[in-house]
Amino acid sequence: MAVNTADTSRQKIRARIRRQRRQLNDSERAACAWQLAMHAGKDRLVQNSQHIAVYLPADGEIDPQPLMQQLWAQGKTLYLPVLVTFPAPRLWFTAYAPGDRLVANRFGIAEPARTHYRRIKPMGLDLVMAPLVAFDLGGDRLGMGGGYYDRTFGFLNKRKYWRKPELMGLAYELQRQKHIQPEPWDVKLSAVATEAAVYHCQ
Q: What is the gyration radius of the CA atoms in the chain, in angstroms?
């Protein structure tokens, strides 16, 4: 069987970056999370959005919770992803506020207890802050490999003009790559926020 060199390269990037970000200590993680919040909280994509999807960190991902505190203080409505597998693996989004009950999904990631009346369709969001493993300045994102965000927001690839929601990746600066070879189904990011800056993608 022929080796898929593109997949191998993506797998190598995933392994290297996941290892590097897990090596950060608690004080480094906390400092980066606060610095990211300072940059992203003032960005025009955030300021122009009311319904914003966020995430709770896992596997060494940068922590958006300092940013979430800012967004709540600004009166934004925040949503967390809920993993569903039927009819196809994808994400739903449920409104989330401090103190709401969380449960662990099958990957051990905390998500809101399923309250259907608080759910929003992906196209009803203004902005999605997405976790990632690696990114480049062209807006290409390498995730964990499950494809949940790409399947959920794949409808954006069919649009030429009106892009809603916008996707903003959240990451450590160490996750930035010179180039990531995209797959046909990948959904591009509009921007990426790190502890160093907010990059608006070309």
A: 16
Q: Please give the domain boundaries of the chain with CATH numbers for all domains.
A: 5-200 (3.40.50.10420)
Distance CA 145, CA 130 (A): 14
Residue 24 CB contacts under 8 Å (≥ 6 apart), including other chains: 32, 60, 172
* Nearest Cα residue to 166 out of 138, 196, 133, 192: 192
DSSP 30: H
Q: What are the backbone angles phi and psi of residue 176, rounded to the nearest 5°? A: -75, 135
The DSSP bridge partners found for residue 81 are 93
Note the pTM of the prediction, 2 decimals: 0.89
**Tell me: the pLDDT tens digits for 112-126?**
886 665 788 899 999
Q: Nearest-CA neighbor of 15 among 140, 108, 144, 137? A: 144
